[in-house]
Design goal:
With 293 residues, this protein is of the alpha/beta class. It is built from nine helices and eleven strands.
Length: 293
């Protein structure tokens, strides 16, 4: 039957594409390891995380404007459990247990030099926390502005593999191979943004409840657009254009971040008896994800 043959050929091509892409990203991960370790960063390993964990619940702190609507009761909940902030969370007054960031080293982005300035200003608040730097461009040296901080504290890097997949079907296949090949025992994964790596970090670290805070997606307003932060950091802006977050915009890429997170939830979280929530209904991920109570 011709249709059956075409179907089998398509399946074969899809598996070949995904496996080839996974191999390519695995090799990239090895190159990142070499660069990071050469420059003095340490790989983030489970035995270290287990010593730092104080809860089975992790709050992931994004930069959406809904952060400014978090109630005092909710902040108390966050303080009682573990939390991780990333990138320009740095400007917020709340200091999380973990902090992860990455940098645009193209020298075309003014936000990078502005980041260094804020990082210096806030270093006393963060120097005793777990700092994770995703130095994804292994062709460039780790910036001296980051290396100098290791006098006070070791900075870790995430070992991760970028998951292949141009659409939901091939992305599902990429996740299946990531699981089947036991890569999740040693590596985090990433796909289309920091939030996926942070969810992966939570899974790798054994957290049973993961709560997404300020992952709004359905607008381009940020918590630091508020006058309180603009008075402190008048130069800070998100650089986001349009009405929704770029990763949430189907016109830019049909495999949007909500589809990716839903797939991760279905295949890697619920299957393991764990739970992924949003903190508020205002998130573009609601009602795909339940609200944490």
């Amino acid at each position: 039957d011709i249709n059956k043959k075409k179907y089998k050929i398509n399946i074969f091509h899809q598996h070949t594409f995904v496996l080839t892409a996974l191999l390519y990203h695995f090799i990239s991960a090895i190159k990142r390891d070499r660069r990071n370790q050469k420059d003095g960063l340490k790989p983030l390993k489970l035995d270290y995380i287990e010593k730092e964990k104080n809860s089975d619940t992790l709050f992931i702190l994004g930069s959406g404007s809904s952060i400014n609507q978090i109630s005092e009761k909710q902040w108390n909940q966050i303080e009682q459990h573990d939390s991780i902030g990333y990138n320009f969370w740095l400007v917020h007054d709340f200091i999380p247990d973990y902090y992860k960031f990455e940098l645009d080293l193209s020298k075309k982005n003014e936000r990078t030099s502005f980041f260094y300035q804020i990082f210096d200003e806030k270093w006393d608040d963060y120097k005793n926390k777990t700092i994770i730097y995703n130095h994804f461009n292994f062709k460039k040296e780790v910036p001296k502005q980051i290396l100098c901080k290791m006098v006070d504290n070791q900075i870790y890097y995430p070992k991760y593999i970028y998951l292949p997949g141009k659409d939901e079907e091939s992305f599902h296949l990429g996740m299946k191979y990531f699981n089947k090949l036991w890569l999740r025992e040693s590596y985090l994964f990433s796909k289309r943004g920091s939030i996926t790596m942070l969810i992966s970090f939570a899974l790798y670290s054994g957290y049973k409840k993961i709560i997404l805070c300020g992952i709004d997606l359905n607008n381009t307003d940020y918590f630091y657009d508020d006058d309180y932060y603009l008075n402190k950091y008048p130069k800070l802006n998100s650089g986001q254009k349009g009405k929704v977050h770029m990763s949430f915009d189907e016109t830019l890429n049909p495999l949007t971040i909500d589809k990716i997170i839903l797939s991760i939830n279905n295949m890697m979280i619920q299957n393991d008896g764990k739970h992924l929530f949003v903190l508020n209904k205002s998130s573009g991920l609601y009602p795909l994800l339940q609200v944490f109570n």
